[in-house]
Design goal:
single chain; three-stranded antiparallel beta sheet; 18 helices; binds 3-methyl-2-oxobutanoic acid; binds zinc ion
Length: about 500
């Protein structure tokens, strides 16, 4: 049996479709570039038929990425397959990922189809997809609640029609490691041509077992793992890429498999994805949480000082966390700045470097030292702010607030060469600031779907990264802001979201 595991990343599809994780085109391209540097084998770039925006992003990722297979998801219907193919056909190695549910529950209540109809439909869909593309994945949705022998029939039919990868997903996060291992090994050993296909696992984390289930699938014979950065995904998320990869890396004695992931890219990729969606890792998140390599207890510190292996099963360096003594500050020049970014894996073009360096200098005026986390946030913020650039911009604001008076805020904004000023009272400085902005921008009716501020690094002069998501008429727009002053970062994030809202409404 081959021992090479393919890592199939679905951050841009299953990850992105979960609430609070949506990304714009530029952000998706940035994530795709990170995934390419991480050396994932397959990037599932989206679900092309689901919206024109999704189609465009799958197409752009397909045309940008050179070193990974690029896939689009597709239901088992011709118009989906057409859209998937049209979106991925520009890729160096395109893949169409067709799915159809095989569990009694899904067939009866969702599809309203009999077993025979599902069998026929699955085979026909794969046959149709195969006309365009030789790399076809078929997923038996809700496989872990499907009848094993029925799935054997379906898999035989789709393989006979040209499927090259067979995915057996735990769609609802219901299975256990023993069951997953048994499922893969049963279907694999009962189909006609097991050597002609790669078996894949795709697990959801509803019971916190996605990583364990995926690894059990590997022991059962799966050679592809579907996963996402930071475990993003529907409900409780998907299998986290960093966890499965580092488990196989740390325990070759158990799994005995290889993959081509560059593990030193894990930390940076995780941070980029968190920055983009405006979240931070829970402190105790395996591999990428702040505490994942921290040793607080005295007895642990003593052990680690004597020999790291006492309490450390993998090194921080192996996931790209480096002991970096090189902090930058206001006297650092563009060259040192560019060199540090290069060492962190960022190859910026001239224009990007100039605008990131400008933002770096602004940050240096407020913050004595700028570390790697700050730099990553500056680059990500710069990359995200591009398409937030049109519309109103903050010139200055002034807030008057205390715990015994009503807050007042004056904002001065600029748009198309004109300046505007407004003042407003509010329940606190942000309410007052947002009220003043609304006087000027007069935005369409909207609600706050999400508002988060998190600190990029440590210390009281840390950068605060604000993300605001607004909902209006069933659509949402997200804005980001980065500053050492959290009121400023919130104002910038709100303006960015309002500018997008205006654009969306055609104002
Ligand atoms: O969870 C699932 O079953 C999926 C499939 C569409 C692969 O995401
Ligand atoms: Zn899924």
């Amino acid at each position: 049996m081959i021992n090479d595991i393919k890592i199939f990343d679905t951050t841009l599809r299953d990850g992105e479709q979960s609430p609070g994780c949506s990304m714009n085109l530029k952000e998706k391209i940035e994530v795709a570039k990170c995934l390419e540097r991480l050396k994932v084998d397959i990037i599932e770039a989206g679900f092309a038929i689901s919206s024109p925006g999704d189609f465009e992003s799958v197409k752009t990722v397909a045309e940008t990425v050179k070193d990974c297979t690029v896939a689009s998801l597709s239901r088992s219907v011709e118009k989906d397959i057409d859209a998937a193919w049209n979106a991925v056909k520009g890729a160096v190695d395109p893949r169409i990922h067709v799915f159809l549910a095989t569990s009694p529950l899904h067939m009866q209540y969702k599809l309203k189809m009999t077993e025979d109809q599902v069998l026929e439909n699955a085979a026909a869909a794969v046959k149709y997809a195969r006309k365009f593309c030789s790399n076809i994945e078929f997923s038996c949705e809700d496989a872990t609640r499907s009848d094993y022998d029925f799935m054997v029939k379906v898999v035989n039919a789709v393989v006979a029609n040209g499927a090259t990868t067979i995915n057996l997903p735990d769609t609802v996060g219901y299975t256990t490691p023993d069951e997953m291992r048994e499922l893969i090994s049963y279907v694999k050993s009962h189909i006609d041509r097991p050597d002609d296909v790669i078996f894949s696992v795709h697990c959801h984390n509803d019971l916190g077992m996605a990583t364990a289930n995926s690894l059990a699938g590997v022991l059962g014979g799966a050679r592809q793992i579907e996963c996402t950065i930071n475990g993003l995904g529907e409900r409780a998320g998907n299998t986290s890429l960093e966890e499965v990869v580092m488990a196989m890396y740390t325990r070759p004695d158990v799994y005995g498999v290889t993959n081509r992931i560059d593990t030193t890219q894990i930390s940076k990729t995780s941070k980029t994805v968190y920055n983009i969606i405006g979240q931070s890792a829970p402190l105790n998140k395996p591999i990428v949480g702040k505490n994942a390599f921290a040793h607080e207890a005295g007895i642990h510190q003593h052990g680690v000082l004597a020999n790291k292996a006492t309490y450390e099963i993998m090194t921080p360096e192996s996931v790209g966390i480096t002991e970096n003594n090189l902090v930058l500050g206001k006297h650092s020049g563009k060259h040192a700045f560019a060199e540090r970014l290069k060492a962190l894996g960022y190859e910026l073009d001239k224009e990007e470097l100039v605008s990131c360096f400008e933002e770096f200098k602004v940050v240096c005026d407020k913050k004595k030292t700028v570390n790697d986390d700050d730099l990553i946030a500056i680059v990500n913020h710069n990359m995200m702010s591009d398409d937030e650039d049109t519309g109103y911009k903050l010139n200055w604001f002034s807030v008057n607030t205390s715990n015994f008076t009503t807050a007042t805020c004056t904002v001065n904004l600029e748009c198309d060469g004109e300046t505007y000023e407004a003042v407003c009272l509010g329940d606190g400085p942000l309410d007052a600031a947002f009220g003043a902005i609304n006087h000027i921008v007069m935005p369409a009716e909207h609600t706050f779907a999400d508002f988060s501020i998190y600190s990029i690094s440590e210390g009281k002069d840390t950068l605060g990264d604000a993300t605001i998501k607004l909902n209006s008429d069933g659509k949402s727009c997200t804005g980001h802001g980065l500053s050492t002053d959290v009121i400023e970062s919130s104002i910038v994030a709100y303006l960015a979201a309002l500018n997008k809202l205006n654009k969306m409404k055609g104002n």
